[in-house]
Amino acid sequence: MPEANTPILVGGGQFTQKGVAIADLLSPMQIMAEAAKRALADAKGGDALAKALDTVAVVRFTADSPEAGGLPKNQYPNAPRTLANAIGAKPARELYTATGGNTPQWLVNRTAEEIANGETDCALLAGSEALGGLLAAVTQGQVPDWGDNPGGEPTQIGVEKPGVNEMEHRHAMYFPVNTYPLFENAIRGELGRSVKDHQLELGKLFSRFTEVAATNPYAWFPTFRSPEEIATETDKNRYVGFPYTKYLNSIIRVDQAAALIMMSVGKARELGIPEDRWVYLHGCGDANDLWYVSERVNFHSSPAIRTMGRKALDMAGMAVSDIDYFDLYSCFPSAVEIGAQELGLALDDPRGFTVTGGLPYFGGPGNNYVMHSIATMLDKLRAKPGTKGLCTANGWFVTKHSIGIYSTEPKEGAWERENPATYQAELDAMDHPVVDDLPEGEGKIETYTVVHGRQGAQFGLVVGRKTDTGHRFVAHVPNDPALFETMKQQEMLGVVGTVEPGKPNEKGALGPNIFTPKI
User: Fold this and answer.
1) Where are the alpha helices (DSSP H) in 297-396?
2) How would you classify residue 42: left for phi > 0, otherwise alpha for psi between -120 and 50, otherwise beta?
3) Residue 48: left (phi > 0), alpha (psi -120 to 50), or beta?
4) Alpha helices in 214-264 (DSSP H)
5) For a 10 Å CB count at each end of the chain, is N or C smaller?
């Protein structure tokens, strides 16, 4: 019999708002409250459950993230209290997280540890985005009157740190659509595939995700797409960051919310939560790769995923072959490929890599996607008691990672995990290339992409190594449409050229370094 302070998940709720007239749009808080109410109902704890909540934690909205740009900020200065008020709860703790797609799983891991330590007994975790409705309204010249200030300030949890340094920023690496393709071309080079062959493999990989999304009632795009349709550049499926077509990119313009209820076994017994609602977190882990992309050991692996995966499986007493269901973070194919590789999974594993349909097809609601994958995983596991599920989560640029292993089978003995700081120290100390911010001389391409807008190719982005020192550098290529086209058609990995440091513009701001390939 599990101990009284064993953490369990007892409720999950999701909500997707689609096809709604702008005048009838629900706010991000309203759809979050709906997801929370569904999670409370799913737990079957009755009216007493909301009043029993001692903690309400909200995942940070995209509008409050560092790279939000012109989005309306501070709509909800105390989002946890606004949410609590909407569901009739009066928690002692109001928490608001830092930015990152890893956050929902990190939050589950953190809350589980707090429950095991007696720091909390009954918690609601929730998040939402309504960027789809917001941007649709703005396009029509309307700005929804969303917001609420219930007083007080939430406790900020997690580390809020920019995903790029100054050098990466001036090369436009702050957009995920510009940076994840760098991983993809490096993966292709490691596999020794041609550009054409690899493109079709990406289509095959993500076509399987569309199969799942097509049957998910919460999916933003519940449509099956063939490998060829996904992989082929067309007017409707333009390149975004080569080799990624539009259908291979996460979709953030969605209106989606999800919530989870966590508590101790003792509290569940007290509240009369039926045991068929209980799902145990058997293993978990959190780890970061070297923070800045330009400093990574390479662009086709993740020591952090490898390490936390091993720690989580060891904690659960399981092997990856024991897992029945996976949801690997899927903002772009490279995230899935690296995640699968580091967990020891073949890309054609018949178990599949998503329970939702993935971020490009189910939807990528800002920092909160993994709340949906965990809520979906609860349903999968309850439908077949005794099965096991694994969810991964990823923040920034294959930077911040979290993992959870779940089952309806009881977690026996004391719930205890290794402090992630112990293995993070080893990851931070890994050998990695020296980065030359202002390189000059001969170099060769380590990985690259061509960034596109709606009107076509905009610039070429290269990560390379200096020939004489082996130091890494980041650069753009000369602004030449013919060169951009060549970079999409020919193999550029290993191509040699000359690099020169960025020059100040008329305002004194330093421009990007320029790499001119010899082709």
Assistant:
1) 303-316, 333-343, 369-383
2) alpha
3) alpha
4) 227-231
5) N
What confidence tens digit (pLDDT) does each residue in 343-395 have? 999 999 999 999 999 999 999 999 999 999 999 999 999 999 999 999 999 99
Distance CA(403)–CA(286), nearest Å, equals 7
Among residues 257, 211, 214, 178, the alpha carbon closest in space to that of 449 is found at 178
Type of residue found at 47: D
Taking Cα atoms as reference points, which of 165, 423, 105 lies closest to residue 291? 165
Detail the DSSP E strand segments found in 147-297.
155-157, 239-241, 244-245, 255-264, 279-288
- In the beta sheet, which residues pair with residue 463? 447, 474
188: Cβ–Cβ under 8 A, 6 or more apart, which residues? 195, 198, 243, 493
Q: How far is CA 484 from CA 197, 481, 489, in A?
A: 20, 5, 9
The span from the CA of 343 to the CA of 325, in Å, is 13
The C-alpha R_g of the chain, in whole angstroms, comes to 23
Query: With contact defined as beta carbons under 8 Å apart, do 347 and 328 qualify?
Result: no
**Among 392, 391, 393, 389, which residue's Cα sits nearest to residue 407?**
389
Q: Determine the Cα–Cα distance for residues 118 and 56; give it in Å rounded to an integer.
A: 16
Instruction: Label the pairing between strands 496-500 and 441-453.
Output: antiparallel
Distance CA 214, CA 23 (A): 28
pLDDT digits (tens, 9 = 90+) for 71-107: 777 789 999 999 999 999 999 999 999 999 999 999 9
CA atoms within 13 A on the CB side of 293: 33
Please tell me the distance from the alpha carbon of residue 112 to that of residue 131, in angstroms, as a whole number.
30
| pLDDT tens readout for residues 452-470 | 999 999 999 999 999 999 9
Hey, what are 366's tokens? Answer: 């800002």
Q: How far apart are CA 353 and CA 418, in angstroms?
A: 26
What CA–CA distance (Å, rounded) separates 409 from 390? 14
pTM for the whole thing? 0.97
Token output for 175: 């957009």
Q: Please, what is the angle between helix 420-428 and helix 303-316, to 10°?
A: 160
Q: Are 64 and 156 in contact (CB under 8 A)?
A: no
